[in-house]
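Title: Comparing notes on inverse folding

I've been comparing how different people in this forum approach sequence design from structure. To keep things fair, I'm posting one structure and asking everyone to reply with a full sequence. Here's the target:
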């Protein structure tokens, strides 16, 4: 169940209450006349089954409540109520399959903003991966994958393409490209520093590296894994199972590929640099294609179910 807290102008409260009451899957409607001060108005609260949430939010936006008042949504972890159980049973479909498009857009907007924190995480992840590729250490590679924040912008691009939000697409693409550019540039300098202090050597980079040589050797499996990861990551976002994103993050070699390309470039090893770049682009394209198609399929299936 979702809990909605609405601030509505007094002259729109009746319309809002009618909309809430006629929406299948709602319960526990509370109206507090004149309770709001900033902005001034009435407070309307209700619970709604997740599978009916998008329909209700759309209706509230059509009434202009987000412009004249406020719409706040939060998940209910526990609801002990017979009426809530009935509301969930009445709502079409299953809550785990429902997509809250406004929530998805807002979440990807936040995760795909180019910020100091985002740049710090992607740079640190690339530097950790650089240590992993030089030392041929799979544990460091997995750690770097988990730290990397690049799935946020990738999800933002997918959402923007489905929802036709050009600003979100531009913001996400900027965060993705600038993030990797900065991370790789810093990692080149990091590789030179580590070489200067004797911790990195070209011999280590050119060794067989059985645990990490897949990073600069893209093949069909690279694309297949990227597609599967894109589907899993998108489903984890739309079903509110964000914890699964960690598993998605460590299944694709975006950050390690960027790190290997940076270290290889620092040592003028252009064969590995180009192979790693191919691996990076293959994974990015696969994730975006799979994520976009997953959202389109979800949108179509949910419309049919409703």
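Reply #1:
Here's my take.
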């Amino acid at each position: 169940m979702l809990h909605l807290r609405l601030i509505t102008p007094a002259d729109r409260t009746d319309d809002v209450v009618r909309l809430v009451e006629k929406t299948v899957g709602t319960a526990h409607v509370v109206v507090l006349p004149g309770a709001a001060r900033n902005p001034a108005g009435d407070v309307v609260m209700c619970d709604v089954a997740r599978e009916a949430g998008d329909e209700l939010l759309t209706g509230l936006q059509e009434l202009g409540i987000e412009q004249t008042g406020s719409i706040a949504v939060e998940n209910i972890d526990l609801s002990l109520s017979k009426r809530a159980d009935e509301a969930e049973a009445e709502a079409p479909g299953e809550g785990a399959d429902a997509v809250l498009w406004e929530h998805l857009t807002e979440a990807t907007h936040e995760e795909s903003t180019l910020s100091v924190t985002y740049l710090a995480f992607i740079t640190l992840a690339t530097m950790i991966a650089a240590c992993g590729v030089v030392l041929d250490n799979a544990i460091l590679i997995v750690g770097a994958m988990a730290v990397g924040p690049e799935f946020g912008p990738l999800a933002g691009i997918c959402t923007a393409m489905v929802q036709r939000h050009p600003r979100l697409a531009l913001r996400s693409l900027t965060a993705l490209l600038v993030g990797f550019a900065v991370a790789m540039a810093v990692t080149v300098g990091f590789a030179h520093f580590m070489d200067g202090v004797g911790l990195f050597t070209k011999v280590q980079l050119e060794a067989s590296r059985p645990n990490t040589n897949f990073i600069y050797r893209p093949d069909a499996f690279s694309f297949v894994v990227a597609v599967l990861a894109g589907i899993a990551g998108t489903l984890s976002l739309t079903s509110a199972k964000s914890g699964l994103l960690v598993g998605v993050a460590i299944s694709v070699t975006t950050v390690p590929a960027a790190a290997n390309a940076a270290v290889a470039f620092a040592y003028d090893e252009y064969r590995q640099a180009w192979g790693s770049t191919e691996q990076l682009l293959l994974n990015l394209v696969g994730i975006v294609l799979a994520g976009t198609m997953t959202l389109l399929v979800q949108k179509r299936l949910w419309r049919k179910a409703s």
